[in-house]
């Protein structure tokens, strides 16, 4: 190769744009567009605050409902909790007959455990655990019945109902109660509440998209001439779309931040009554906040919805330009 050719190759290589250079330019361009979009947003604080308020409420409602659902699920029975049947015997039954019934139940293969609580034992526990124990002294005879607590092997709903009915074969049985029936009902209520929350989340997510799209469409209207000139001199759709996408991103992100604050304020407001409710059944309660994962998910969701709303608005406008 001649010296002139080598010199030309070195000169060409000296001006060659590498992938690293392209990446740096791409990052610098996006950083500039993001900063510029944020600056434009801060230049109109009143209009931005109104939009962010709508976005914050729209994101806060489903976030609060889902967080409240997580807290109420503390009332649901654990997966490994075995339901217990309480068999109340009629008053005045002889102790021998009570022992016979409890032994017969103890020999059944479909039961995990059987515990007999005599009327005397029940009276002692009643006096220890309540402040109404003195009322028992007003009766000549102990009014409390003997109770047999049994834990079935099969905890399915059908098996429990069948066993509950079969125990009435004993004439001495007065009533049979399933101590987690209220938890089963609560589980059904929470299941319905979860579906309602998911439906509201979808509807309010669409609301966020529409609010951001309408806001970005207003921004586009104020810059129509600039966009038309840019397209005429060869600007790509991506170049035109980019600043508005970042504007939508900032709207969604700041709306999610506001929603997080609203959710925390709402949880503080309902913490006291929620604690009183759950303490009645659990004896203790620990409020579950959003946590890092919840906050991160909400911020990511708001940013994506803001970005998506902006994309819809700009794409629609670009389609109109192409039609011309």
Can you tell me about this structure?
With 324 residues, the protein is an alpha+beta fold. The chain folds into two domains: 32-76 and 185-323, no CATH class; 85-179, 2-Layer Sandwich (Alpha-Beta Plaits), CATH 3.30.70. The protein has ten helices and four strands. It has a four-stranded antiparallel β-sheet with strand order 2-3-1-4. The longest helix has 46 residues, at 237-282.
In short:
It contains ten helices and four strands.
- The rough form would be described as elongated
Oligomer: single chain
Amino- and carboxy-terminal Cα gap = 55 Å
Q: Please indicate the count of domains.
A: 2
Sequence-ordered SSE layout with sheet pairings:
Elements: H1 3-14, H2 19-43, H3 45-72, E1 85-89, H4 95-106, E2 111-117, H5 119-129, E3 147-152, H6 157-166, E4 173-178, H7 181-221, H8 224-232, H9 237-282, H10 291-323
Antiparallel strand pairs: 1-3, 1-4, 2-3
Helix pairs in contact: 2-9, 3-7, 3-9, 7-9, 7-10, 9-10
Features:
2 domains, 7% strand, Alpha-Beta Plaits, alpha+beta, 324 residues, disordered N terminus
